[in-house]
Amino acid sequence: MNIRICMYAAIILIVATIGIASANDLTEKEELGKLLFFDTDLSVPKGQSCASCHDPGFGFADPDSSRAVSMGAIHVRFGDRNSPTAAYAAYSPDFHYDEDEGMYVGGQFWDGRAANLTEQAKGPFLNPLEMNNPSKQSVIQNIRNSDYVDLFEDVYGVGALDDVEIAYDHVADAIAAFEMTDEVNRFSSKYDKYLAKEVSLTKEEMRGLKLFNNPNKGNCAACHPGTSGPYADKPLFTDFTYDNLGTPSNLGMLGDSPELMEYYPFYYQPLAPNFNPAGLDFVDYGLGGIVGEQDEMGKVKVPTLRNVAITSPYMHNGAFTTLKEVVHFYNTRDVPGAKWPAPEVDMNINTDELGDLGLSNDEEDAIVAFMETLTDGYE
Ligand code: HEC
Ligand code: HEC
To answer: Is 302 in the pocket of ligand 2 (CB under 6 A)?
Structure first.
């Protein structure tokens, strides 16, 4: 009897394990994309991969939260923006202007300048502030020397690395394929389990969820919808539109101080001043800088809130370091006497949906507690 139970248990265990294994099984192309994503030999100097700034252990964002921005492969170089999560980016529609809504939607990067994931993946290798390859040739040469060169040819054909332009497109294609897998987009947070009726939320989390959704309270779901939408049958917590929240600059937050130099080194770049000739006068115009329209200046793409509890700092420039600070900003930006620094871009600021939400301190905390249920891997 006991032995039989044991046997059944063992069979169930084996079946379950196979089930998990197959759920995580990647196709050859996805596996190749994964190897490329984690390969630290594809930067100049070697040492930096996509995962260096998009680490799965940190919600596919930068594990280093001591700065607003990420360090390049050359360690004295820094970009101008906070590394967003690379997870769930796959669901962003191609960048386009929605005629019905009268607004830009989708694309990749905070400013939408890459149309889609494949175009995005071609950027970091050649960016001198990131992986710093001098040419596509340099990336392809390193792949030729890698131990997954055979897999590359299995996926794209023998000789697929011979033409640099075509090979580089394949690299981006494979990375995008990996970024579309459920290894990256896990949908395994406490909130997902709550939607599947497998767990319940605490009172505090539940209160936060209601405030988050309530248009007369947090109104967060207006831009970060927590229900399925047009781009996925599960909630993405972004509608991929663009807004200027009046987020302050880092200079506004910290003043011209040693802390600022540490936290947002892009302003200074002492050893590489040509990357920011404007120095402290640098202003990030976001989408407006890309499409060249006054009406879009200062707008950036609404980020997903999945895994947000483990992806500090926050906003396109990393101006805020805690979720509480973010919520407090939404709640009090326009309250007289609140003393927030001036917005980085004082144009097109959204004053309809945020700025004076009238939330109590406890209500702010509840919204934070709710956002903490969005971290993947909840057991
Ligand atoms: C040095 C850090 C760094 C490295 C290395 C890096 N990224 Fe990024 N990544 C960023 C930053 C910063 C942004 C936002 C840049 C912007 O908006 O201008 C970004 C944006 C993205 C986005 C867009 C997400 C969204 O929601 O718009 C994706 C996807 C992405 N990176 C994937 C990759 C891939 C793939 C690689 C490797 C080929 C890579 N990254 C290498 C820092 C990095
Ligand atoms: C009008 C649209 C809109 C509304 C309403 C809105 N957000 Fe946002 N949210 C954005 C945009 C746009 C950004 C990026 C802003 C930036 O980088 O300057 C953002 C950024 C964030 C971030 C930082 C995420 C990251 O990865 O850096 C958090 C957290 C956040 N929002 C939470 C909330 C909460 C909580 C509410 C409700 C109290 C809310 N949002 C309401 C549009 C909105």
So the answer is: yes
